[in-house]
Each structure stands twice: as structure tokens, then as C-alpha cells.
From TrEMBL:
Keyword tRNA-binding recorded: no
GO molecular function term, any single one: 1-alkyl-2-acetylglycerophosphocholine esterase activity
PANTHER family from the UniProt entry: PLATELET-ACTIVATING FACTOR ACETYLHYDROLASE
Protein name: Acetylhydrolase
Length: 357
């Protein structure tokens, strides 16, 4: 179905300088929110974390039905950042990634009261870079085939099941009405499948939708390779969707090439008007991973922070029908955007009720 950027992740780097035109106080707050200093080392969760510190919690789950390990990392907000039941984003990494990657998203989101669960897909994770280099292309090909695409969706649903299980510490703490699927590259395809994308096999639709997801964040989505009719594949995707890409977001690995236009085509093929597209000016396909300055130079950490923040603004748009955070975000980050985010159809009645209140 899909294949993605083939490069291991590295730690986030920071320039420490605000871009021209950004509000200094707002940028400073984002700098602090993106920092790792408030997070504690991962550890098994025996009880709901209650201290006023954000937490990183690692899980070593195994799906016995598939005899498949499903490691995961949870970024849990500090008590002071939580306001009632906690929204949850479930994140799927790109090809060759792991639960440790995309830490800037987990840190940034949890700093503002939104938990994120990062699933590791053992059939297409960092283990691809291990072993005989001569066999790397074979490993990449196997990791990006249709069977692994399906197993990835099952990984995500299984991880969500485990986090929400009735006897677990997070069962009552997570807001079931605000659970969002998210992913980068191959993980973006995983997200689309979980929210309605399907293909026809033997004359029948094949899909793995998880109805618990109320929205999706799709970062650098490749096309569904081998599928000629993209609108048909995405016809059933009806949840609100945020699409994020960059003007140099091109995928180049042996056997696969995907230009930036593919990201725009995926956005265009989503049928619901409750969608918006964010395009950064510059930045490679891997600028959204934890890889640092050599991919995008000084732009790299800015794109990361802006991506984390636009995810939160999008959740306000979807779950509160409040367009103001996205409007403010667009004004703040205008210096590094190729264009303003595309219009999103807000529930006008809900927004009117909110303004009257």
C-alpha cells in the first residue's frame, strides 16, 4: 500500500533563535514546551501518574492473538496541564522508526494537556537497519507491503485497547470523545486506513477502520502505491483531518519515488469539507522526524514546534469548533508557511453557542 522515508531518527536540535515576525513571548513558551527537561525516564505504569510533572511511560505489550510484540510509549501530561478527562493522540511512526521517535510531538502535546501514545510497529520499525546491509532492500520491500500495512492498523487498535482497558489506570482518565489518530509517512497511511481508507480485493472492500478515532493528523502521506483511483481509496474517510507537508517533502528510496504533489493529492481526495492543509516553505520529508539540523537547517526545529502546535490548534477546531487558535497559529508561523492553511468548515451552530456562552 505505501512506503516511506528510509532514514533512522536522531535527537531534536534547537537554534534558540525566534524567526523574524514571531511573537517572542509565544515563541519562548513553545521553546519551553518542546524541551525534554520536564520528562522522566520511561517506566511501567502501576498507577495513574498524579504528580505535577509530565511523564514518559513505556509499555512492552504483546498481542497474543497475533503473537506480535506491540511496544508503545505514552506521554502523559502533568496534573497542572490536565483539565478533566485527557484528550489522546495515538501516533504511528514512519518506516524504520520506533516509539522513541517524534518525541517533539509527544513532549509538546503533553505539555499542553494532551496525552499521546506512540506505537512501535515491529514489522516495519528500526530493526530494518540491523542485519546484513546487502539484504536491506528486501527488508524494506517486505516492511512496506500490504500485509504490514494491515498489521500496523491492528497494532494501533490493540494499543488503544490496552490503554483503555477497564482495569487499567488510564481507563477513566482519557476522554473517549477526543481520541485522534496521527502518523507520519507510512504512519500517515496507517492513520488514513484507521479512519476509513479502503481498497477493493476480490470485488469486496477491505478496510480496518477504528470508529473510536474522532479526527486524524496526517503528516507527509505517501500515495497508496499500486492503487490507481485515490479518491475511491479515500472515499469513506469522513473524520476531520489535518494534513501537514512541506514544499520539499519528496520521498526517494529504492523502488519508490513520491513527489510533493502526492501529499496534495491525498488532501484533495478526502471528501469531507472538515479538513485543512498546512504547507511549510522548505523542509524535507524527514524534517518531521527527530532528525536534526542537517535536514532543513535552522528551519528544522521551527517546523517541529509549529507542527506540534498546529496539532493542538486543530483539536480545538474539531472538538470545540473554535477557529481562533488556528487563526492565531497561522499568523504566528506565517514566516515559514508557503500559504495560509486551507479553509476548514466549522460547525457554525456550535461555534455560535460557544460565543454566546
Amino acid at each position: 500500500m505505501a512506503i516511506v522515508d528510509a532514514a533512522p531518527s536522531q535527537p531534536l536540535a534547537s537554534t534558540g533563535a525566534a524567526p523574524r515576525g514571531l511573537d517572542r513571548r509565544r515563541f519562548g513558551a513553545m521553546m519551553l514546551a518542546a524541551g525534554a527537561g520536564s520528562l522522566l525516564p520511561g517506566r511501567p505504569a502501576l498507577a495513574l501518574p498524579a504528580s505535577d510533572e509530565a511523564r514518559v511511560i513505556d509499555f512492552e505489550w504483546v498481542d497474543a492473538a497475533r503473537d506480535r510484540a506491540v511496544p508503545a510509549r505514552l506521554y502523559w501530561p502533568a496534573a497542572s496541564a490536565r483539565k478533566g478527562p485527557v484528550p489522546l493522540i495515538v501516533f504511528s511512526h514512519g518506516l524504520g522508526g520506533s516509539r522513541k521517535g517524534y518525541s517533539y510531538l509527544g513532549e509538546g502535546w503533553s505539555a499542553h494537556g494532551t496525552a499521546s501514545l506512540h506505537i512501535q510497529h515491529v514489522g516495519s520499525d528500526e530493526s530494518l537497519w540491523q542485519g546484513n546491509p546487502i539484504m536491506l532492500l528486501d527488508r524494506l520491500g517486505g516492511a512496506a507491503d500490504e500485509r504490514e500495512a494491515i498489521e500496523r492498523t491492528r497494532d494501533v487498535s490493540f494499543g488503544l485497547d490496552r490503554l483503555l482497558q477497564r482495569d487499567g489506570p488510564f481507563h477513566a482518565a482519557i476522554d473517549r470523545t477526543r481520541i485522534v489518530a496521527a502518523g507520519h509517512s507510512f504512519g500517515a497511511n496507517t492513520t488514513l486506513i484507521l479512519t476509513g481508507a479502503q481498497v477493493i480485493r476480490d470485488g469486496k472492500p477491505l478496510g480496518f477502520r477504528d470508529p473510536r478515532f474522532t479526527a486524524s493528523i496526517v503528516i507527509s502521506a505517501p500515495p497508496f502505491y499500486g492503487e490507481a483511483d485515490l479518491p475511491a481509496v479515500l472515499a469513506a474517510v469522513d473524520v476531520p483531518t489535518l494534513h501537514v507537508t512541506a514544499t520539499e517533502d519528496t520521498i526517494r528510496i529504492p523502488g519508490r519515488y513520491s513527489p510533493v504533489q502526492d501529499r496534495l493529492d491525498v488532501y484533495a481526495a478526502i471528501p469531507t469539507p472538515q479538513k485543512t492543509l498546512v504547507v511549510f516553505q522548505g523542509g524535507s520529508h524527514s524534517v518531521f522526524t527527530d532528525r536534526s539540523l542537517r535536514n532543513g537547517g535552522p528551519l528544522n526545529p521551527l517546523v517541529k514546534r509549529a507542527t506540534a502546535e498546529v496539532g493542538l490548534a486543530f483539536l480545538d477546531l474539531v472538538h470545540k469548533s473554535d477557529p481562533v487558535p488556528l487563526e492565531d497559529w497561522s499568523a504566528t508561523w506565517k514566516p515559514i508557511l508557503a500559504a495560509a492553511p486551507t479553509p476548514f468548515q466549522v460547525d457554525a451552530r456550535q461555534w455560535a453557542r460557544k460565543r454566546r456562552a
